Amino acid sequence: MEGGGSVSWMKYGPVVSLFVVILALWFRSPQNEDLDDRLDTVLSSLLRAEQKVGMSNVARPKVAVGFGGCVDLIVDGVSLLNKIGLPPTDQPLHHDYIENTEQLAQSFAYFFAPGAAAERFMLNDTLFSELVEASRDLPGNRWSVGGNAPVMAGRMATEGCDVLLGGSFSPDFTDVLSQHITGNILDEPDIHLILEYPSGASWGHYTSRRANRYIIHSDDHNPYLDSMEEFAEKLGDFKPDLLVVGGLQMMDNFPFQSGERDALFSRLADLLSSSSPQIGVHFEMASFVEESIMEDLLHYVIPHADSLGMNEQELPNLLSLLKGSNITVLSDPNPRVATVLDQMREVYRILNQRYKDGKPLTRLHVHTLAFQAMIVTRGSQWKNTMSATAKASLTANRHVCGSNDIDPSKARLIMDDSFSVSRQEGSQRIPLQETRPVSCWDEEDYEICVAPVLVCTEVYQTAGGGDNISAAGLVLQI
């Protein structure tokens, strides 16, 4: 989350980024000239695409965002495991939830090596408290606003929206969150532990393929969507242009009493179905591993959503379930563009066939390390898809590098020089044009846009990346 100066940064950030491009041109080394040229051109072109749609001359869009809130304690994951004396395991294994240190080692190793994001509930309160205490005096640790809803709310307020937050945050962060956010202050919010690691990090014989994070929590408040009732009461007077739902992964593998989760989902479905048809509804996916909760999402939540956001792990997970297969816990963390686009087309088609008598899915945004991809139905309420895709791409770098000023010397392109629009034989290949890096084209009843990401090479934080990216992309489309 950005600090108190975030609004001014957002006002001048693009100008500063263009200035950095000019400095990079001046100080480049001869051997890197071609690469520098390419990065500089892509950056300046993405900035122009983002700036084609201004927020300064329009009324601030009103966005309602739920649910939950916490405090994130961010540490270097390997340093923490070393500090508590947890040796690398010889058995990387998937666990739905964590009960002891052996399962923690196995689960961390399972996701650490491929560099895949994961989030797990820890049933063992004592072990979780010990990990938090060990993290408190770990060098380089940081406290941050946490929870999907507060993070998305913070980004949207920074980008020019007025936000109703269906969640809570610590009084320690009232000066960080924008004055344009209305929410509840909770004196002792739950702590979520964020184990970050850079690309190339080593833990025993494991080496991470990309920077990412492993999240653990023992949260017994957010799974109950405590803020939902008050949030629903305020929606009528707030009159939002967009309703955003996230944070439901807190309910994954939580030990509810029989019938509790169904009742919560039923209340959420009532809230979504009672909102005005003119209000867009966006659902942000997350790391779900329990098959029954995915079925609940398909029954109670997704039929009411016009828009879905997810990463490269969550997309094949959802598609697998839609096609009648089991959940895919771990997928390729660096998929090709053609693979992602084919999966997006299938999700778009299946959901619109399945819920053809309900609310159609008109927007699908997938954020990966290398690129952003959007499918938007032509003639739908969502506008400015090209600029929104560019903004999502730039936000990925801004968040992960921890600065609104994008420095091309701390970035690289890992998307291919050209990509196929599908894995089908004979599919069109689209070259990456540095002067027009966002590629958009029409198919069937929708438009597809793909933008490369200037991948940050000096990582500040990966946690909250998806929430920031999705929120920024939505802002230009309301």
UniProtKB/TrEMBL annotation:
<feature type="signal peptide">
    <location>
        <begin position="1"/>
        <end position="32"/>
    </location>
</feature>
<dbReference type="GO" id="GO:0006006">
    <property type="term" value="P:glucose metabolic process"/>
</dbReference>
<dbReference type="GO" id="GO:0006096">
    <property type="term" value="P:glycolytic process"/>
</dbReference>
<keyword id="KW-0808">Transferase</keyword>
<dbReference type="GO" id="GO:0046872">
    <property type="term" value="F:metal ion binding"/>
</dbReference>
<protein>
    <submittedName>
        <fullName>ADP-dependent glucokinase 2</fullName>
    </submittedName>
</protein>
<dbReference type="Pfam" id="PF04587">
    <property type="entry name" value="ADP_PFK_GK"/>
</dbReference>
<keyword id="KW-0418">Kinase</keyword>
<keyword id="KW-0732">Signal</keyword>
<dbReference type="InterPro" id="IPR007666">
    <property type="entry name" value="ADP_PFK/GK"/>
</dbReference>
<keyword id="KW-0324">Glycolysis</keyword>
<keyword id="KW-0479">Metal-binding</keyword>
<dbReference type="GO" id="GO:0043843">
    <property type="term" value="F:ADP-specific glucokinase activity"/>
</dbReference>
<keyword id="KW-0460">Magnesium</keyword>
<dbReference type="InterPro" id="IPR029056">
    <property type="entry name" value="Ribokinase-like"/>
</dbReference>
<keyword id="KW-0963">Cytoplasm</keyword>
<dbReference type="GO" id="GO:0005783">
    <property type="term" value="C:endoplasmic reticulum"/>
</dbReference>
